Amino acid sequence: MENEGRGRRRHGENNGRRRWLGHLLFMLGVLAVWELTARLSGVSPLLLPPVSEVAGSLWSDLGSGVLSRRIGFSLLIIFEGLALGIFGALLLSAVVWTSGGRGARIVDSAVAFLHPLPGIALLPLVIIWAGTGRTAVLLIIVHSVIWPLTTNLTGGIRAVPEHLYDVSRNYRLGPLQTMAHLILPSTLPYLIAGLRIGWARAWRALIAAEMVFGAAGGGGGLGWYLFQQRVFMDTSGLFAGILLIMVIGVLCEELLFESLERATVRKWGMSR
Amino acid sequence: MREAKKKPAIAAVELESKAGQSISGPPLLQAEQVSFGYQHRPRRSKAALGTEGMEDVEGQGVEGQAEVGRVILNFTLSAAGGDFIAVVGPSGCGKTTLLKLLGGFLHPDEGRVVWRGRSIDNPDPSRVMVFQEFDQLFPWKRVWANVEFSLQHGINAGQKQVRMERVEDMLQQVGLYEARKRFPFQLSGGMKQRTALARALVCRPDMLLMDEPFGSLDAQKREELQELLLRMWRQHRFAALFVTHDISEALFLADRIVVLPGPGSAEHIEIQVNLPRPRDRSAPEFRTYYRRIYGLL
Q1: From the CA of A260, how many Å to the nearest CA of chain B?
Q2: pLDDT for A52-100, tens place per residue?
Q3: Could you give the ipTM of this predicted complex?
Q4: Which residues in chain A belong to E strands, given as ranges?
Q5: Contact list, A164 vs chain B (CB under 8 Å)
Q6: Is A191 helix (H, G, I), strand (E, B) or coil?
Q7: What are the b/e assignments for A231-263, b being 16+ CB within 10 Å?
Q8: Under DSSP, is residue B80 helix (H, G, I), strand (E, B) or coil?
Q9: Mutation for A interface: B185, B202, B204, most A CBs within 10 A
Q10: How many domains does chain A fold into?
């Protein structure tokens, strides 16, 4: 059965490799169709620049450090927002867990109302409250992350097997120990699923917010880069930005969440 | 076997309307007139309800109790150290509820549960519960870590090295040493229950409360684990309270069998099992006991 475990892990690795290959082939296919369309259809390169041109501006902007600064800015702020969102969601879930009925109903209502509200809809208000600086973008990101994460976490807490609670009570675990040794690990699959949703929402909200805020507060991220390229009618730069946003999204998903899942819940047989 | 042959088997079946007459030592656990029912309890949160509301709801609660009836009614039992008691009864008769009451997981509506002369109000590592369900193991802990858990939290078992020695010794005893590095999902059902047993026994409890622990296993595995349980019982001399719906399992394991009839209807009956160990399931005396208990259910 030792082998069974290993076999399953190897199977997982194969799956991962196949997924990567799939992603790569898909992208190459899209790029090929795009290149052909752009070259053969005679559409103005201002509307649809060929891939080679997009690659060129990608290369030069990456080389000059403009793009890498923009990427760095966006990633830094999104991870900050994710961290704050996770912290907030954990806090809210802890409230739900400790307070039982009433606290849970309040948090449930809060989630029910705020979850469907797109971050971008809050933007005008956030600008009035917090200006157009970094704080405002952070607020939007936290808003996009915290609600799906809280929904998932509270769902996860409700799904903790009752017998594990009994076992923890039997060995006299206090509330904090129960949280650390039971609730947190057993809600991890839900936490990761929530992070995936939260991450995708935050990434969209961030780009949107940056396009509205521009570079205020210094720096400016990928959204700001897109905005600039539009102003300068630099279509190939625009495409380069869009490509980057997608690629970074996929990379985060695959590298961060996939490997986190593989190292934890999938290794424990809690999800496949 | 020789002893049993001297007397007619039926005579060996002693019916006792009241428990606690055949104690082999000072009582460890006593249930005194314990009653319990899962009615819709009055809400205790004063902030959620007005004071008037409180009175209303509490009034209803008392009525509700009478209507719903009891899962456990006037249950009395006395267990001494080293006793092996089985509780049998049809499904839904409140066996699990009873075990939870005796373990301190639930509180009786009436009567009390006494442990070493003091009322129980919480579960304690000196009385460890083992469940039927396989999800009683922590999926994220390897077998050894699942077993170590009770030493880390339940009792103060000292340094890591000391703990690990005890864990590995226990894993040898239940035959899981080779599998100690697996995660629960890589174990068969029998191995999972062995792990749960090892986790319970490694902190040397005075009493083991078992809720149909082998109920989800195939017949062969079940018998294997019954033998293992008896081996561990002889070696560690804990008291065992074993809930099951399987009469022959109860007869194979226990010295005393408490028969719970349907939900809250008649009184429970305690039967002394005077069969020599190791028990032989095909012995005529065994069958006689079987039919006797079957008739009571």
Answers
A1: 14
A2: 889 998 898 888 888 888 888 889 999 999 999 999 999 999 888 888 7
A3: 0.80
A4: none
A5: 135-136, 138
A6: helix
A7: eeebbbbbbbbebbbeebeeebeeebebebbee
A8: strand
A9: B185
A10: 2
Range of the domain at A117: 47-266
- Does any domain span residue A214? yes
Is residue A244 a contact partner of residue A66, using CB atoms and an 8 Å limit?
no
Count other C-beta atoms under 10 Å from residue B16's C-beta: 14
Radius of gyration of chain B (CA): 21
Domain closes at, from A27, A43, A59: A43
Task: Determine the Cα–Cα distance for residues B101 and B211; give it in Å rounded to an integer.
Answer: 12
Return d(Cα A265, Cα A254) in angstroms, integer: 15
Note whether A186 and A256 are same-domain residues.
yes
The answer to the question of residue A228 being in a domain is: yes
The total of other beta-carbon atoms located within 10 Å of residue B199's CB is 30
> What is the percent of chain B where pLDDT is above 90?
62
Find the CATH number of the domain harbouring A78. 1.10.3720.10
What pLDDT, on the 0 to 100 scale, is given for residue B125? 94
Q: d(Cα A96, Cα A210) in Å, to the nearest integer?
A: 34
Q: Strand B110-115 relative to strand B269-272: parallel, antiparallel, unpaired?
A: unpaired
Same domain, A39 and A88: no
Nearest to B126 by CA among A162, A168, A173, A170: A170
Rounded to the nearest 10°, the torsion over CA B85, B199, B195, B142 is 170
Residues A207 and A221 in one domain: yes
A92 and A155 part of one domain = yes
Say what the pTM is: 0.80
Q: Do B103 and A101 touch (CB under 8 A)?
A: no
Burial group, residue A37, by CB count within 10 angstroms (0-12, 13-18, 19+): middle
Residues from A in contact with B at Cβ < 8 Å: 1-2, 4-5, 101-102, 161, 163-164, 166-173, 177, 181-182, 185-186, 188, 264, 267-270
Asked if B190 and B215 touch (Cβ cutoff 8 Å), the reply is no
Same domain? For A19 and A61 the reply is no
pLDDT digits (tens, 9 = 90+) for B212-224: 999 999 999 999 9
Q: Are residues A258 and A205 in the same domain?
A: yes
Q: Hey, what are B287's tokens?
A: 């069958």
User: Can you tell me whether residue B38 is helix, strand or coil?
Assistant: coil
- Domain shared by A25 and A133, yes or no: no
Measured between beta carbons, which residues in chain A are less than 8 angstroms from residue B150?
171
Asked if the structure places residue A208 within a domain, the reply is yes
Query: Three-state SS for B211?
Result: strand
Residue A123 falls inside a structural domain? yes
Mutation target for A interface from B106, B152, B153: give the one with most A CBs within 10 A: B153
Whether residues A105 and A126 share a domain: the answer is yes
Q: Is B188 left (phi over 0), alpha (psi -120 to 50) or beta?
A: beta
